[in-house]
Amino acid sequence: MASQVILGITILALALVQAFAYDPSPLQDFCVADTQSKVIVNGFVCKDPKTVVSEDFLFRGLLNDFRRNTNNRVGSNVTQVNADAFPGLNTLGISLARIDYAPYGGLNPPHKHPRATEVLTVVEGTLHVGFIASNPANRFFQKVLQKGDVFVFPFGMIHFQMNLGHTPAVALSALSSQNPGVITIANAVFGSNPRVSKEVLKRAFQVDDEVVAQLMAQFN
Fold it and tell me: What is the pTM (predicted TM-score) of this model?
């Protein structure tokens, strides 16, 4: 019963995301992505509709019981279901992601999606989630979520999720773009290519050379 409720919430979230999708509306019934095409367009070139098959609209195993590997520095793993991974999403203005969190503080670190709003549903576990609004107030909105709870991260806001539990956690996100993109704040600021000037970072974060060097060393 609980799994049916979560599935229902997820379907509703997808419907809402589609209603407020950011991507341009399609001009035909479907445009399955031709991921092998070398033509560069805003999105993907369509496959010949005559070659499209039912499998193009199917992505299997997103919510299976297989645990994703969270053995990394932040303790999380994101499985993206965007138009790159699921060609049938091309031009439809939606995508999904499964996020797995390690026990005891597994973190999907502060990040933003430059092209999407995100609706997150907790499938398993207990998550601390939040987002920070824009300057000058920089208001911080946060909640602790349980299984079946839903939280929305507004378009372009910096946000995060952390596992508060002693067991693995799983969440499912619906996003209002076929390619929402992601900018992880620490990686972008301290691990850019080429690097941001240390003088810029020192003044922006009000720290000295040693602290900037230590932070940069974490994001080689």
Answer: 0.85
